[in-house]
Design goal:
Number of strands: 2
Radius of gyration: 17 Å
Order of helices and strands: HHEHEHHHHHH
Structural class: mainly alpha
Helix content: 55-70%
Largest sheet: 2 strands, antiparallel
Strand content: 5-15%
Shape: globular
Distance between the termini: 28 Å
């Protein structure tokens, strides 16, 4: 391991750590909600007859999404991450997350971005990312990578 390698890893840790620390507090909730639906459809007071129904998201999910939006972890060029790494399915996303080391933080950022930014227009993406564990796995993997090269985060 040469000096440039160590300097690069330290730069990655310094860049990502403050943002990841904000998201790890959601891990217990993401663990609990994996495999379950975090969206309901609002149908109150006769709305079905006179208007369209709309989704109502779990408050913790909305809090998580807003927190991610306040970080530097969103990459508007996430489609490039998907094409460059030939990621097309949820199974491939989960495998890419699992394989990602400190040098592949951009892949984790790209996958997170697809769901957070895509969910702005297709809300089902947010609930899918909770259901299939993408949000949980990305945050956990970022935390693991940073802790491996730094010290444990709370």
């Amino acid at each position: 391991m040469d000096k440039d390698d160590i300097a690069y890893r330290q730069q990655v840790v310094n860049t990502y750590k403050p943002d990841v620390e904000k998201l790890i507090r959601y891990l217990p909730w993401l663990d609990e909600k994996a495999g379950s639906n975090v969206q309901e459809t609002f149908e109150g007071s006769g709305i079905k007859e006179s208007s369209i129904t709309f989704p109502v998201y779990d408050g913790m999910l909305m809090s998580f999404i807003k927190e991610v939006q306040r970080t530097g972890l969103l990459d508007r060029n996430y489609p490039y991450v998907y094409s460059r790494n030939r990621i097309r399915t949820v199974k491939e996303e989960l495998a890419a997350i699992d394989r990602a080391g400190i040098r592949e933080m951009d892949i984790l950022k790209g996958i997170l971005s697809k769901y957070v930014l895509g969910g702005m227009t297709k809300g089902r993406l947010w609930t899918e990312a909770v259901y299939n564990g993408v949000f949980r796995n990305v945050v956990r993997k970022m935390k693991e990578n940073l802790e491996f090269w730094d010290r444990p985060m709370k």
